[in-house]
Amino acid sequence: MLLHMSPEVVRCAWATREPLIAYHDTEWGVPVHDDRAHFELLTLEGAQAGLSWETILKKRDAYREAFDGFDIERVARYGARKIESLLENPGIVRNRLKVESTVRNARAVIAIQEELGSFDTFIWQFGGGAPRRNRRRATGDVPARTEVSDAMSKALAKRGFKFVGSTICYAYMHAAGMVNDHLTRCFRWGEVR
């Protein structure tokens, strides 16, 4: 199902109001090649588990402030005191496992950077190095996970990442532009091709 905002603009059905519309129109499906941006998106997708993406987008600025702009090196150094202060921050999802996973994931990103030079190099191997351009006609055609997201999830978990199940990984692949699952009638499908 597509949402008709005006006779000229057709969006994917989930982009019904702000901040979803702005995210859909400017970010979703656009390829990311910056480690800090990858870390932010992976963190937000993990935080979203069990919640709506709209909720997380509304908290995005608070997340950026709470996690020092997603500076991977700084987050990797967080200790128990910093984690406890984050758990008192009403601007973010105050789930201990999710907060601790952010710190753990930052350390895992650094390990990959030290091994391969960048997290971007590691993560894009799952997309074959280029975005996958799907031709979805209806929202129901978009899967929650794929064989590629299964492989990504297993590889990330093996390297110590948390909150990286296959469904989270496929949502992350959308966010990082590794797949274009805008519906074919959506104005963004052609733009991000």
Q: Count all strands and give the number.
A: 4
User: How far is the N terminus from the C terminus?
Assistant: 20 Å
Give the helix tally: 10
The profile of the biggest β sheet is: 2 strands, antiparallel
CATH H-level superfamily: Hypothetical protein, domain 2
CATH C-level label: Mainly Alpha
Query: What global shape is seen?
Result: globular
Give the overall average pLDDT.
94
The strand line-up of the biggest sheet is 1-2
Keywords:
Endonuclease III, domain 1, 193 residues, globular, two-stranded parallel sheet, mainly alpha, 10 helices, two-stranded antiparallel sheet, 52% helix
Describe the structure in your own words.
This protein is mainly α and 193 residues long. The chain contains ten helices and four strands. The protein has a two-stranded antiparallel ribbon with strand order 1-2. A two-stranded parallel sheet has the order 3-4. The model has no long low-confidence stretch (mean pLDDT 94).
Show the helix and strand layout:
Layout: E1 2-4, E2 10-12, H1 20-26, H2 35-48, H3 53-66, H4 72-76, H5 80-86, H6 96-116, H7 119-124, E3 132-133, H8 147-158, H9 166-175, E4 179-180, H10 187-191
Parallel strand pairs: 3-4
Antiparallel strand pairs: 1-2
Helix pairs in contact: 2-3, 2-6, 2-9, 8-9
